[in-house]
Structures are given as C-alpha cells and as structure tokens.
Amino acid sequence: MLKRRIPSSGEELPVVGLGTWQTFDTTRTEPLEAVLRTFVELGGSLVDSSPMYGRSETVAGDLAAKLNLHPRLFMATKVWTSGKQAGIAQMNDSMRKLRVEKLDLMQVHNLVDANAHLATLSAWKKEGRIRYLGITHYTSSAYDAVARYLEKHTLDFLQINYSVAEREAEQRILPLAKERGVAVIVNRPFGGGSAFRDVRNTPLPSFAKDLDCTSWAQLFLKFALGHPAVTCAIPATSKVEHLRDNMAAGRGRMPDEALRKRIAAAMG
Questions:
Q1: In the Cβ-directed half-sphere of 7, how many Cα atoms lie within 13 Å?
Q2: Could you tell me the pTM of the whole model?
C-alpha cells in the first residue's frame, strides 16, 4: 500500500482509508467485522467517522476493540454541534464510543461553529488529547468559507469532496491546502455514486492496465489520489469484495496529469 506524508509531521498514512457514513450505522455488524479485519490486513489504517453518522462511532470502536486493532488504526472523527461546552461534551462522547483515550484526528464537521471548536482542539493538541486537528466539508458551495479557514488557521488536515465527477476543489481548495501544508482526505471519491452511473454502460478503457487498474472503482480512486495535494481517500463499504477492490487502488502505478485527463475524458 502506497503511503503519503502528513505535511505537519512527516508521519506516513496509507493512501486508501475507510469511511463509515451509512455503512457502519447498523446493528448488523458481522459483515463489518470482516471488512475492518480485511482493511487492516490489506494495509489500511485511517478510519473516519462522525457523531452525525448514527451508530457508526460505536460500531467502529467496538469492532476495533473486539479485533484488537486499535494499535494499527488511525482513528478520525468529528465534532458536529454548536457551543464550546457542547462541543467538548460531544468530543468526549465520541472518544468513549471509539474506545480511545487519545484520538489521532478530530475534525470540525462542515465548519459548524468552527472557531469555537478549533480553539478547543488547539488546546487539546497541546495537552496530548488529540494528535491532529482539521476541518471538513462535502460541497463546493462552502469552498469560500473553507478557503478562509485554510488561510487563517493552522490545520493539519482538510477533508473535502473530490472525484472525477466533482472536480471543483481543483480550482482553489486543493492548491491552497498544498500551499499551506495541510494534508487532504478525500470524501465522496465516487461523487456519491454518480461516477459509476456515468459509466454504467462504458467498458473499462484500455489504458487502465497502465495504472494497474482492473475496475472503474480503482480508476476513480487513482484519479483522486493522482492529484499532488491529496493524502488519502476514504471510500465507504460494507462488503469485503468492494473493500478489496478499493484497496487495490492503493497499489501499483498512479496517474500523472495526462492520465488523469484521460480518465476524465473516458467519462464521456
């Protein structure tokens, strides 16, 4: 599995992580146990969640504990509420659900009351309660606000939507994150599924073999990972076969800009 450095520390992260939106919000955890075990076996470490995702934090924490995987995981979640004290209470609750005393990454979800929470997180980072802090969003309509936070604050991570189907982040956000030394986690790497719909009746292009890709999912993930600002992508799945397919995108050759353009053109 290819790894990339977190600019603020030099620590390396595997380029394919695991999202938990919808997939981990369930009481049927047996398939997810296999998913999480296989994820780590294939070289993954970053698991991303949020209190917005229902039971996802609890399920991720319980499965990591059951499988004794906490030492091998990079656990990330978010704060998603207004008010300093409400944020502190929610973050403490998230750490309890994830079963960690020290969290790898806490992010302000969709910039909700970001100034208040970033002040808390800066203090927590100094105290050693978290290792990294960041902000997230999922839509281009928020990019102006995202850019202001990137410019004003010292951040370790930005989580943002980026895919061959949603390329707006290329214009300003990704270059700014790279300039500011902020690691980028890509959410919605399949454009919420729209990328697959766009190629439903389109065969995999012949140049996919030049990137060691055997599926559209791998090609889409490598499109995002091929951008020089991107550190990691976090597709979500509850199926081991889809996980194996996704994880394969973290191996082999990555596209240069010319090949990224060919991937985009192949979308029609």
A1: 19
A2: 0.97
From start to end of the chain, where are the E strands? 3-5, 12-14, 18-19, 46-48, 74-79, 103-108, 130-136, 157-161, 183-187, 232-233
- The residue among 18, 62, 21, 58 whose CA lies nearest residue 40 is 18
- Cα torsion angle, 38, 197, 216, 264, sign: negative
Closest CA to 107 of 70, 124, 13, 60: 124
Closest CA to 16 of 227, 203, 222: 222
Give the length of the chain: 268
C-beta contacts of 220-223 below 8 A and 24+ residues apart: 220/163, 220/164, 220/189, 220/190, 220/195, 220/196, 220/263, 221/16, 221/189, 221/246, 221/249, 221/250, 222/249, 222/254, 222/255, 222/263, 223/163, 223/164, 223/255, 223/260, 223/263, 223/264
- DSSP string over 92-139: HHHHHHHT-SSEEEEEEGGGTTHHHHHHHHHHHHHHTSEEEEEEE---
Question: Does an H or E element contain 195, and which?
Answer: helix 194-198
Which residues, including other chains, have CB under 8 Å from residue 258's CB and lie 6 or more apart? Answer: none
Q: Is 111 left (phi over 0), alpha (psi -120 to 50) or beta?
A: left
For the chain, how many helices (H) and strands (E)? 10, 10
Q: What tens digit of pLDDT does each residue of 183-206 get?
A: 999 999 999 999 999 999 999 999
Phi, psi angles (nearest 5°) of residue 220: -65, -45
Listed in sequence order, the residues at least 6 apart from 179 whose beta carbon sits closer than 8 Å to its beta carbon are: none
Task: Report pLDDT digits (tens) over 201-249.
Answer: 999 999 999 999 999 999 999 999 999 999 999 999 999 999 999 999 9
